[in-house]
Specification:
The protein is of the alpha+beta class and about 140 residues long. The chain has 4 helices and 5 strands. A hairpin with a 3-residue loop joins strand 1 and strand 2. The structure holds guanosine-5'-monophosphate (5GP) and zinc ion.
Length: about 140
């Protein structure tokens, strides 16, 4: 996806209507048009990067630094009990808009969101081997 076609870049440029909740020189936060709960908000860096891992560290640091402030305001506005911060990176992970973003999803006990969390246990030795392999790739 080129920057010219990116729906989130169009929001940054104010060329399409957006329910903005926060904006500064680095980030924009706005309400998701397809919410999982009332107040479901997206936080994006104004610069176009596809994935978290593509962002330069200074952009990522500033982007992440805004999360707490926006999440607190969202939760207070809708009276939520908690929230999920979700980042889909890549098509396989459910990323549809290829401009990096975090979802801030207000939660209430028993709301039925994310009921399937398919956790499992590693077989013997696998956890140490995987940790070593990840360290090698840093
Ligand atoms: P992803 O699956 O890429 O993590 O999530 C993209 C999110 O962007 C979806 O939750 C979707 O509802 C939201 N979205 C897509 N197009 C628009 C739009 O034009 N306006 C707004 N406000 N949200 C959008
Ligand atoms: Zn973009």
């Amino acid at each position: 996806m080129s920057q010219d076609e990116c729906i989130f870049c169009k929001m940054v440029a104010d060329s399409i209507p957006t329910a903005k909740v926060y904006e500064d020189d680095v980030v924009l936060a706005f309400l998701d048009i397809g919410p999982l709960s009332d107040g479901h908000t997206l936080l994006i860096p104004k610069q176009h990067y596809t994935r978290i891992g593509d962002c330069p560290e200074d952009v990522l640091a500033a982007f992440c630094a805004r999360l707490g402030k926006v999440a607190r305001a969202v939760v207070a506005a809708v009276g939520a009990e908690g929230y999920n911060i979700l980042g889909n990176n890549g098509r396989s992970a459910g990323q549809l808009v290829e401009h990096v973003h975090f979802h801030i999803i207000p939660r209430r006990t028993g709301d039925g969101i994310f009921t399937n969390w398919p956790a499992y246990r590693y077989p013997q030795g696998r956890i140490e081997a995987l940790a070593a392999k990840i360290r090698e790739n840093l």
